[in-house]
Design brief:
The chain has 552 residues and is of the alpha+beta class. It has four domains: 26 residues; 97 residues, Orthogonal Bundle (Cytochrome Bc1 Complex, Chain D, domain 2), CATH 1.10.760; 190 residues, no CATH class; 144 residues, no CATH class. Helix content is 30%, strand content 8%.
């Protein structure tokens, strides 16, 4: 009896060992399932892993195609490149036809690949037969035993390239002394403009730290983003064929770029909408020169926040070609919005303090997030943005018991009415062309503080702070007569949210500090002689007629 049980146990043990061996072999040599859209049938794992005779020279040629076509923007090999789509071992996972289909984005893969990736792949159909064949061979050479990209033999590069993968680019751009001699400072933004450029040596605009080559973006290579000829030694030749580097951001950051495409920062739709309201559709197209030279100059792309100074002040690298995931506020946000929100927030107006949130080390993006990259929706102004920052995101809405003034009698008053300091107002901007150059000049600017009636539909408060919009009745007369037929339909004093908040201000020290001060409220005497007739609708009653604590 015992012998029978022993034989049975031995038999079961043998079968179990055999089964485990088979499972282990399958795990080590997976067979990729065949799909109708997978670019061809996949070979058995054992066949895919067996030795393939590939010419080392073809492998090296394919590797050069991989580098030249900047495939590392989307893919990585041995940890180099975009980690989202590694190609390590791909030569064992797919046979030649499947690899070819994935390289060129064959039609059978349209429902498999993300739409943006599929569209990008279409450009690879333009590869020559030799380029495609050698690139395919290089892909086949990437097998599990390969710990790094396979090359036929060490490639001896000229000494000038040893400083980085940018060829001769860094010979000039990492030489601070040379850049100081050749970089021409960009034209200074007009003093009457909205942007405020930081003061710094011009050579920094084009200076690249050598350490950049060891970063994720640096491994793509200079010409991968900028184009040009990295092997050339003469500046003009090296810069021939250069392109807008920002266009390649979508290759790796497609989701964010797609959202940004419809954002207010990209479309400048807020400016366009405001201009159309006063000009009407019939005249809007006549203001193309104004739009292209003025409004559109504020467009913010990827680099304006993450790499360079904003285009509105001439651009230029912020710091040695370093990429910033979190934009450096003083060199980006506060530059474009320099004459208003930026200067207010940082406390740059003499006699007034910085915003308490800035003093608490808060960055713009701590509050502004959904209105930066966008959320895929198209808005006509910043007040419409879903999830836009509001004081009540962090602070209790009125009425509350934190202080006596936060009672129900003030619940229709915006927070800024009590907690903002004086802010910049601009008046009567005019545009023209002089000797072929576009000109814009503001009539005058001044710091002020005015309270009036809300101008934004849906805004939760009726009594708000107002800021004057610089458009004038005759702002664009140089380009044609009566281009703003609807000028009087909309006020020039508009609801604003100043970025210079203080817990204690001159107007909130006591009830009389506000209710007894007529000069705080927008009055007839504050209006420009040629201001919009619609301003009459937002003037508040004189402060002396507002009973202390009464509903407005």
């Amino acid at each position: 009896m015992r012998e029978q049980w022993a034989r049975r146990i031995a038999l079961l043990t043998g079968q179990l060992v055999l089964l485990m061996a088979v499972l282990f072999a399958v795990m080590q040599n997976p067979i990729e399932p065949t799909t109708a859209t997978g670019g061809g049938e996949q070979p058995p794992a054992a066949e895919a892993l067996e030795h393939i005779d590939l010419d080392p020279k073809d492998i090296e040629a394919g590797f050069q195609v991989y580098q030249r076509k900047t495939c590392a923007r989307c893919h990585s090999i041995a940890g180099k490149g975009n980690p989202r789509n590694p190609l390590d071992g791909v030569g064992a996972r797919r046979h030649a036809q499947a690899l070819r289909d994935w390289i060129i984005g064959a039609d059978v893969l349209q429902t498999v690949m993300p739409a943006r990736a599929f569209n990008i792949k279409q450009a690879y159909r333009e590869l020559s037969d030799d380029e495609l064949d050698t690139l395919l061979i290089y892909m086949q050479s990437l097998r599990p035993a390969t710990s790094r990209p396979i090359q036929a033999e060490p490639v001896v590069k000229p000494a000038v390239v040893a400083a980085g993968e940018g060829g001769n680019c860094l010979t000039c751009h990492s030489n601070a002394g040379h850049m100081m001699q050749v970089v021409i400072p960009p034209a200074a933004p007009p003093e009457d403009g909205c942007a405020a450029a930081p003061s710094r040596p011009a050579f920094l605009n084009a200076f690249v730290n050598k350490e950049f080559t060891a970063t994720v973006h640096g491994e793509i290579g200079c010409t991968g983003c900028h184009g040009g000829d990295a092997s050339a030694e003469e500046k003009k030749t090296a810069h021939t064929g250069m392109k807008v580097a920002e266009a390649g951001c979508a290759d790796c950051h497609s989701e964010i770029v797609e959202l940004h495409d419809s954002s207010l920062h990209n479309t400048m739709n807020g400016m366009a909408h405001a201009l159309k309201l006063r000009s009407g559709e019939d005249n809007y197209h006549k203001l193309g020169t104004v739009w292209n030279n003025d409004c559109a100059s504020c467009h913010a792309g990827c680099s304006d926040c993450h790499l360079t100074l904003p285009t509105a002040v001439g651009g230029g690298l912020i710091k040695g070609h370093a990429f910033f995931k979190r934009p450096p506020m003083k060199d980006t946000c506060a530059v474009c919005h320099g004459s208003r929100a930026g200067a207010e927030y940082l406390g740059q107006w003499q006699g007034y303090e910085a915003d308490v949130h800035y003093e608490a080390s808060m960055h713009c993006v701590d509050c502004h997030n959904n209105d930066l990259h966008g959320d895929g929706q198209t808005y006509t102004n910043r007040w419409q943005v879903s999830g836009r920052p509001q004081c009540t995101d962090c602070h209790a809405a009125l009425p509350n018991k934190t202080t006596k003034a936060h009672d129900i009698k003030h619940q229709d008053v915006s927070c800024q009415v009590c907690h903002a300091q004086p802010y910049q107002n601009c008046f009567s901007c005019h545009t023209s062309m002089k000797e072929g150059e576009y000109q814009r000049r503001a009539g005058h600017k001044r710091l002020g503080f005015k309270i009036g009636r809300n101008t934004v539909p849906g805004y939760p408060y009726s009594i708000v702070t107002l800021r004057n919009n610089p458009v004038a009745r005759n702002s664009f007369d140089h380009f044609g007569e009566k281009l703003l037929p609807h000028f009087d339909d909309y006020p020039t004093w508009k609801t604003t949210a100043p970025h210079n908040i203080r817990r204690v201000t001159k107007q909130n020290r006591s009830c009389d500090s506000c209710h007894g001060q007529e000069k705080l409220f927008l009055q007839e005497s504050d209006l420009e002689p040629q201001s919009s007739d619609a301003n009459q609708d937002i003037i508040t009653p004189p402060a002396r007629n507002l009973e202390q604590g009464a509903q407005y």
